[in-house]
Specification:
Helix content: 25-40%
CATH architecture: Roll
Radius of gyration: 14 Å
Number of domains: 1
Order of helices and strands: HHEEHEEEE
Strand content: over 45%
Number of helices: 3
Structural class: alpha+beta
CATH topology: Nuclear Transport Factor 2, Chain: A
Shape: globular
CATH class: Alpha Beta
Distance between the termini: 35 Å
């Protein structure tokens, strides 16, 4: 399997784990030195992201990749594109949001792990 297919699969697993709030799978997919930058400018570590999940800040109902490009160099891959999410805080109404996302994946042992994610909200989405 080529690296493009591997990253596409890893991203799909990440999104399914986010929707299911599957902490054990998320721990496998997120690097220990993760920097997760939300579209509102909040930047979190891996633990900060898990704290936000536990507090109900991120309740994902759907995540769909609209388009993406991949650049690879050895054990590092950058995937950039647009994603549509149906998301909100637990117990509140969710909204559809389109984001431009750049993600840096790194191969660690035998798996790809997300190291950096930065999102920018597309206006009027």
């Amino acid at each position: 399997m080529d690296v493009h297919a591997e990253i596409t699969i890893a991203e799909g697993e990440l999104y399914r784990a986010m929707i299911a709030q599957n902490a054990s799978l998320l721990r496998e997919l997120l690097a220990d030195d993760l920097i997760y930058i939300h579209s509102n400018g909040v930047s979190e570590s891996k633990q900060g992201y898990f704290d936000g999940l536990a507090a109900g800040l991120y309740d994902y109902e759907a995540i769909e990749t609209l388009h993406a490009q991949i650049w690879s160099h050895g054990e590092v891959v950058v995937r950039s594109g647009a994603v549509r999410m149906l998301v909100g805080e637990r117990g509140r109404s969710k909204s559809n949001t389109t984001l431009l996302i750049t993600a840096l994946w790194r191969r660690e042992a035998d798996a790809w792990r997300l190291v950096l994610r930065q999102a920018t909200r597309v206006p009027n989405s």
